[in-house]
Amino acid sequence: MDVDLEAARALLAIALEEARAGRAEGGIPIGAALFDATGTLLGRGHNRRVQDDDPSTHAETAAFRAAGRQPTYRGTTMVTTLAPCWYCSGLVRQFGISRVVIGEARTFRGGEEWLAEHGVELVVVDDAECRELMREFIAARPGLWGEDIGEPSPGG
């Protein structure tokens, strides 16, 4: 599946639905979806660290788990509303996911350069809604944001 900017925006719509769901549940508004080589949705999910009291339930891992076992991940596309952290970048590399569509990479920089250096195709959409979801969340809950990225705010 070739992913140009227009196609990336269409795929991003599902990840954005997930990010909104996470926000509505009182969690961190990051969503993701995994698509096969033909563009068929395999799994979707959102960050559930708060809701599940599980620090490993990032949006990308939730989408990956929802997809279930696949014989191969070559040719698949992980779509995420926010640039993937190192943990999620490792998941992409470990399983050979071919490309990552990133809703926005201004708020947070994770492993994008490392992924690109290892042959993962990156498409950065720079979506205004993705940026605004994160801006609002960080302004309202800076301590939780710091916790999520491993940088607790001063005083806890």
Any overview of this molecule?
- With 156 residues, this protein is α/β, with parallel strands linked by helices.
- It is built from seven helices and five strands; from the N terminus they run H-E-E-H-H-E-H-E-H-E-H-H.
- It has helices spanning 5-24, 49-52, 59-67, 86-95, 112-117, 128-140, 142-148; strands at residues 31-35, 41-46, 77-80, 99-102, 121-124.
- The protein has a five-stranded mixed β-sheet with strand order 2-1-3-4-5.
- Helix 5 (112-117) links the parallel strand 4 and strand 5 (121-124).
- Helix 1 runs parallel beside helix 6 and helix 6 (128-140) crosses helix 7.
- The longest helix is centred in the first third of the chain and has 20 residues, at 5-24.
- It starts with a helix and ends in an 8-residue tail after the last helix.
- The mean pLDDT is 94.
Secondary-structure map with pairings?
Layout: H1 5-24, E1 31-35, E2 41-46, H2 49-52, H3 59-67, E3 77-80, H4 86-95, E4 99-102, H5 112-117, E5 121-124, H6 128-140, H7 142-148
Helix pairs in contact: 1-6, 6-7
